[in-house]
Design goal:
Elements: E1 2-6, H1 12-19, H2 25-31, H3 40-48, H4 58-65, H5 67-78, E2 82-83, E3 87-91, E4 98-99, E5 103-105, E6 110-117, H6 132-145, E7 149-156, E8 160-167, H7 170-188, H8 200-209, H9 225-256, E9 261-263, E10 268-270, H10 281-287, H11 289-295
Parallel strand pairs: 6-7
Antiparallel strand pairs: 1-3, 2-5, 3-4, 5-6, 7-8, 9-10
Helix pairs in contact: 2-6, 6-7, 10-11
Length: 309
């Protein structure tokens, strides 16, 4: 059972605010730790923070703009008909679960998720594969809507169109609901930030939360000496590994000399000339201080350093 919330005529800000009231399909993979572009901490920030901003970049724009095209290609490939739903769905049994689906399949107890993928990620769709966080997204939609089948269609930009079919799986859906319930109750409802996982996304969230500093303030560091010793070991290991990597690359460059490419049965190496243009900010500040002041943008960030006591 689910509640249907009409989205026709809803402003973008209202829609984004509604998304903050529950866990959506695109959040499922992050909560499960299988989304390479997200993390549980990021979902927590999105649900508890005051901002209602939508991610806006070229990949997101292309995904939105090409959704109709992907749906059309799916209909051509399968003979099925799809339509927009114009509703946000909320589970009655688990009201922390919401679903904003791309399409519903007409005449079948099924939905459709539309994706676009870069040619660089084509290997993630080969041989019937589906990126794992997209699988979790589809099962989340099934859990909310009760529909027994979910299709996922993708256009690999410049290469191919492909689609897959996922069917209801009691065990997967039960585990997913349990994970999402624990996350909502233990973290979002309790306002308890999840543990960091080492991802870049986590670093960005921590910068957002704690971007200002109380100058001169100090706290006693308790319980981290073992972790900091381990950090020092890792820094040393990374330094050695980086030196080994650099040595290998230098040996290959010496072997290539002025050749741009080198290849073997297993590898293809390029050492190409890359031309770039950058603004000489130091010179501009000295020679054109008024222009520099007009275009200079200040930013504030925090620098993390560790020194032995």
């Amino acid at each position: 059972m689910y509640e249907k919330i009409p989205t026709t005529g809803m402003s973008n800000e209202e829609w984004l605010t509604l998304r903050k009231t529950g866990i959506g399909g695109s959040d499922a993979g992050s909560i499960c730790g299988v989304n390479p572009f997200g993390s549980p901490m990021k979902v927590y920030y999105d649900k508890t923070g005051s901002k209602v901003e939508e991610l806006d970049n070229e990949a997101v724009r292309q995904g939105h703009d090409l959704e109709d095209y992907v749906a059309q290609r799916f209909m051509e490939a399968t003979g099925l008909k799809v339509r927009r739903s114009n509703f946000m769905y909320r589970s009655v049994e688990n009201p922390f679960m919401i679903a904003d689906v791309d399409r519903l399949v007409i005449g079948e107890d099924a939905g459709l998720e539309c994706k676009t993928a870069s040619a660089y990620n084509a290997d993630k769709w080969k041989d019937g594969d589906i990126p794992l966080h997209y699988i979790m997204q589809c099962y989340h939609y099934m859990a909310v809507t009760g529909k027994r089948t979910w299709y996922i269609a993708a256009v690999i930009l410049g290469q191919q169109f492909t689609y897959r079919k996922l069917v209801w799986n009691d065990e997967i859906i039960k585990q997913l609901v349990d994970v999402e319930r624990e996350f909502w109750e233990k973290h979002v409802a309790a306002r308890m930030m999840p543990d960091p996982d080492g991802s870049k996304v986590c670093s960005e969230v921590l910068e957002e939360y704690f971007h200002t500093v109380r100058k001169g303030s100090t706290i006693r560091l308790e319980g981290f000496d073992d972790r900091l010793r381990r950090r020092a070991e890792l820094v040393e290991q990374i330094s050695r590994l980086k030196q080994e990597q650099d040595t290998i690359e230098q040996e290959i460059k010496l072997y290539m000399k002025d050749n741009e490419y080198a290849s073997s049965d297993g590898y293809r190496v390029s050492w190409s000339s890359v031309q770039s243009t950058r603004l000489d900010a130091k010179r501009m500040k000295e020679e054109q201080p008024d222009i520099y002041r007009d275009y200079a943008v200040q930013s504030v960030s925090r620098r993390f350093q560790v020194k032995a006591a």
